[in-house]
Amino acid sequence: MPTADRGPRAAWEVVLGADTTGADPAAYSTYVDARDGAVLVREDLIDHAADHPSWEVFPNSPRVDRSSVDTRKRWCAVPARGCAEVVGVPGHPA
After folding, report:
1. Mean per-residue pLDDT pooled into runs of 10, the chain (94 residues)
2. What pLDDT was estimated at residue 51?
3. Which distant-in-sequence residues (6+ apart) come within 8 Å of 32 by Cβ?
4. Which residues are bridge partners to 39 per DSSP?
5. What is the model's pLDDT at position 9?
6. Distances (CA, A) of 17 to 6, 22, 23, 41
7. Which residues pair with 92 in a beta bridge?
8. Among 51, 37, 46, 50, which Cα is nearest to 18's?
9. What pLDDT does residue 94 have?
10. How much is the pLDDT for 33?
11. Which pLDDT does position 78 carry in this prediction?
12. Neighbouring C-alpha atoms within 13 Å toward the C-beta of 73
């Protein structure tokens, strides 16, 4: 396992899938240093992304406004309340 401050390290990968069916699913992949037992990396294996993502964007480019007004607009992947624009992508059209 490559590390930023200790060079390459021999490591064990441990995968824990505690509960992937409940309201709060949990599953992790952890790399443990084979020499001293230190945890090198812990990765959450559950995709917690929203089913209907939205994000704030500057429609063209940030407008410099001396009054410090936020000119961003909310765009969404699917129609939803408060969205200025619905933006579909190939494979997930709006």
Report:
1. 87 83 79 93 75 76 61 83 79 51
2. 67
3. 11, 12, 13, 14, 38, 39, 40
4. 32
5. 92
6. 29, 12, 14, 16
7. 89
8. 46
9. 46
10. 94
11. 80
12. 12
Distance, in Å, from the CA atom of 21 to the CA atom of 25, rounded to the nearest integer, reads 6
pLDDT of residue 74: 87
The one-letter amino acid at 38: A
DSSP label of 53: -
Q: What is the distance between the alpha carbons of residues 5 and 28, in angstroms, rounded to a whole number?
A: 23
CA distance 32 to 18: 18
Q: In whole angstroms, what is the distance from residue 39 CA to residue 23 CA?
A: 27
CB 55 within 8 A of CB 83: no
78, HSE (Cβ side, Cα atoms, 13 Å): 6
CB of 85 within 8 A of CB of 79?
no
Residue from 73, 81, 79 nearest 55 by CA:
73
Strand-strand pairing, 85-86 and 73-76: parallel
